[in-house]
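Lab notebook, bench 4. The sequencing result for the construct came back, and we need a structural model before the next group meeting so we can plan mutations. Quick request posted to the team channel:

Model the 3D structure of this chain.
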Amino acid sequence: MRDSCCQSNFDSSDLNHRQRIVLIIVLVINAATFFMMVLAAKISGSTSLLSGALDNLGDALTYAISLIVIGAAPFVKARVAMFKGLLILSSALVVAYVIILRLLQPETPVFETMGLAAIVNLVANLSCLLLLTPYRNKDVNMSSAWECSRNDVAEGLAVIVAAIAVWVFNSGWPDLVIAFGLLIMFSRSAIRVFQAAWHDLHLTTDKTKVDA
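Done. Here's the predicted structure in token form:
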């Protein structure tokens, strides 16, 4: 029994260590792509690209928080996941604000800059998703981090589609349409994270009451 217990503790410690390494890597990737995309969005005038940049910023903060609570109690992780949901929702609100501004002052983005930045962003996001996938079902902390990364991949593909459509139609409307689609995606993702966190929060609360 002692050997089994020691092995369990070792496995848990090793898992936490590997999770920390993965989160540090994806944190650095998202922080770097955020600055790249902000610059590209400013040069190109792309709303969807700026939306993606804001999403990367929110994800970088999410990964930083996930890093802090690795190994914490399930109750703490559930509460932190609720905060992550708020971060995703905040990104959605900022995107909505940017869309309104673009509707009032429409412009056609520079599709070359937009497309190149979107491709680099997609490659970075796919790398993050592959790194996080083995840990997606470990707990609500890693699950919410994986959810953010999956959103990033969808966002990267959407911005590439927007860049192609801007080039084909020589119009800024495809960019706004994709940005609106990202707004809906962020909102739905926030709801899923809230639901998962709420479920885990109640499970841990009920378990505490039973143990007491």
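The mean pLDDT is 78.
Will bring this to the meeting.
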